[in-house]
Amino acid sequence: MSSPTEQLKTGMIIDGFTVGECVASGGAGFLYDCTHPDHTVPLVMKVPRLGYNQPLAGLISFETECAIQPRLDTPHAPRVFGVGKLDQQPYLVMEKVVGQTVESLIARRGPLPLEDLIEIGAAVARALHALHRSQVIHLDVKPGNLMLQADGTVVLLDFGFAHHALCPDLFYEAQLKGVGTPAYISPEQILGARHDARSDQFALGVTLFEMATGKLPFGVMEAASEMQQRLWRSPIPPRSIREDLPAWFQEVVLRCLEVDPEKRFPSCSQVAWLFEQPHKIDLTKRGQKTEAAGFWAQAQRWWRMRNRSLKVKRTTESNPLDEAPVVLVALDPESDDEALLESLRTATRRAMMSSPESRLSCVSIIESSKAQETSEDNEADRQHHTLIALQHWASTLRLDERQLSLHVFEESDPAQRILSFADHNQVDLIILGASRAGRTIERVRSTMTRVVGRARCSVIVVRPHVD
Amino acid sequence: MRIALLSDIHSNLEALQACLRHSRKLGVDRYAVLGDLVGYGADPVAVVDRVSRLQQDGAIVLMGNHDEAIIADDKTLNPDAREVARWTRQQLDSAQLCFLAALPLTAKIGMLMMVHASAHQPGKFHYLMDSDAAVDCLAAIDPGIRLVAAGHVHEPRLWHHSGRHSEAASYRPISGAMIDLLPTRRWIATIGSVGQPRDGNPAASYAMVDLAQSRISFFRVPYDHAAAAEKIRRAGLPSWNAQRLAIGK
């Protein structure tokens, strides 16, 4: 390192970026507004405090950001516009994200009403799932790092502690444990694990708890010994602080906060899905609790955890998200093509076998122009008939009702509807029927072709055996 | 400039050809072979000829301990390896032996230093197996060097050292992933073995470094290991040398 970074002066030009006002400064470094003639979006320049008198973690954190953030191509992370040479003038220029952080929202409004908890909770869970799908784990999820934009999208800030499945993990390899913000980090992070996407889910649980109650489930932990308690201590149920919270909400929060990652949800997309369909939540004792576990229960947990290490999967390597996939099957349940319906059923059953937590959305689209011509029913009736038929088709799959959702849409553009449904619900696999020789209608073919061509996930096209 | 780094071919022609084909497809400006062309396998003549052709076309070729053992009997090699070294010596003609004898121990291009085993006492062929060995290696290099590429350990790994920490840390690379060699650190890539991988994955291992971009990628290339093993059996060489190719041990 040639020289430790000093504060920059307004008006300085570095690699074409003109430095503006210093908008924030903290232990880790400085944040400046900046501009560049080639870029019209507002930019900020992050300049770290480096040098031998600064903690090692600060350097690793900045190295981590510089290695990971430019690789991200998602609306849930700030775009990067420039990375300074780390050994000369280290800086990171990124898009200035406009919005308000969840932290400032809580500070301003206190505990949030249920509608906001649902909306923001689902948006954060979707943002985390999108990140996990691009093989990144944030590992410092907290209200201050969650930026809410005007359109409801959540952008994650600060990738200084993040893990990328394809990059060297500088914190892990330096054997630094408990890296993150103490009040929010997961038990496995305290033990040094950094490869499990479900660690972000734990921090999401802490964040949801704080959004709902204004309090932290484990308090502001500072000493290492206090953090160790997270390996066995169960949090107080949020409903004991705020009575009007529904049991399902507490169920979600406390499941996110399970000590053992295996007991949490398989992915953050499950959390987002449940926020949108709370009636699908399997209520357990977690949701019903109204007081913290008693002394003896806590002591038992401590005894059990004492000599046990947590099983931590390197989930980004094995792609955990495939283990409990979200599947979309698109079909016309009223079709007279029994062979195709049977093939779709077989393919769907296979796709759902991997995990009891896999989820299936059955989608049927009535093409609106055609429906109006041929049917005497009104729109609501048509949709109802189709829904009944869809339910009948799905019942033969013998899935748990909680795994399943049925959707009927009347649309002029079926392919577009399937694609936007798949994007919004972060679907991992689309199954649909092939157009068949002899019965081919141009419309069917073009729907299939467009879905296959444009989907952002895998697509299985099913065709019955043709003899 | 993109340099394909290959090491520990160990007379395995099938594996060498597979890696050369793979790297040509990706686009490569230069080759570097980091020693141990021979030993263990049944194709020393074809491998030495192929590598010497690469050298005529501008490749860097270094000496490994198994190459040295062909020239002078090495009592530190295990009995199987010594037996194969004796057999290999009988296969090669004097021009091929001279080619091996003349190979240098190290080479440099810009910020990259290449060596068969470790930059620390290159002729002693220390194994880069742990942090201490990595730190010793980095202590021996010139200040301008940011990346040491080595073979010898038959396992792909990327060591890095920040200078702020007494220990070097390491990362097990994922095939095909591009890794930025951050300038705040110094790096050692043990690039794995082309002809006898030992990390449980039978696919041939090599790496590609892009000096302009300061990036490295490691690759695993499947090859016909059954054919290579069959040649070893037919040559009457120790059967374990054949068996291990299928299991990557």
Note the overall shape of chain A: globular
Q: What is the level-2 CATH architecture name of the largest domain in chain A?
A: Orthogonal Bundle
CATH architecture name of chain B? 4-Layer Sandwich
Question: How many domains in all of chain B?
Answer: 1
Mean pLDDT of chain A: 86
Structural class of chain A: alpha/beta
CATH topology of chain B: Purple Acid Phosphatase, chain A, domain 2
Q: What number of structural domains do the residues of chain A give? A: 3
| Overall mean confidence score, pLDDT of chain B | 94
Rounded to the nearest angstrom, the radius of gyration of chain A is 25 Å
How many β-strand stretches of chain B?
Answer: 12
Q: Oligomer, anyone?
A: heterodimer
Strands across the major sheet of chain A, in which order?
Answer: 1-2-3-4-6-5
Strand content of chain B: 15-25%
Helix content of chain A: 25-40%
Tally of alpha and pi helices of chain A: 17
Could you explain the architecture of this structure?
The complex is a heterodimer of chains A (467) and B (249). Chain A folds into 3 domains: 13-95, Phosphorylase Kinase, domain 1 (2-Layer Sandwich), CATH 3.30.200.20; 100-320, Transferase(Phosphotransferase) domain 1 (Transferase(Phosphotransferase), domain 1); 324-462, Rossmann fold (3-Layer(aba) Sandwich). Helices cover 37% and strands 17% of the residues of chain A. Residues 1-5 and 315-321 of chain A have low confidence and may be disordered. By secondary structure, chain A is an alpha/beta fold. In chain A, helix 3 packs antiparallel against helix 6, helix 3 (114-133) packs antiparallel against helix 9 and helix 16 packs parallel to helix 17 (442-454). Chain A has helices spanning 56-68, 102-109, 114-133, 170-173, 187-190, 198-213, 224-228, 247-256, 268-276, 285-288, 295-306, 315-318, 338-352, 368-374, 379-395, 414-424, 442-454; strands at residues 13-14, 17-25, 29-36, 39-48, 80-83, 92-95, 100-101, 136-137, 146-148, 154-156, 163-164, 326-330, 359-367, 404-411, 429-433, 458-462. Chain B is α/β, with parallel strands linked by helices and 249 residues long. Chain B has a single domain (2-247), classed as Purple Acid Phosphatase, chain A, domain 2 (4-Layer Sandwich), CATH 3.60.21. Helix content of chain B is 33%, strand content 22%. Chain B contains 8 helices and 12 strands. Chain B has helices spanning 13-26, 44-56, 65-71, 79-91, 94-101, 131-139, 225-234, 239-247; strands at residues 2-6, 30-33, 60-61, 106-109, 112-115, 147-150, 156-161, 169-171, 178-180, 186-191, 204-210, 215-221. Chain B has a 6-stranded mixed β-sheet with strand order 3-2-1-11-12-9. In chain B, helix 2 (44-56) links the parallel strand 2 (30-33) and strand 3 (60-61). In chain B, helix 3 (65-71) crosses helix 4 and helix 7 (225-234) packs antiparallel against helix 8 (239-247). The longest helix of chain B is centred in the first third of the chain and has 14 residues, at 13-26. In chain B, 49% of the residues are buried.
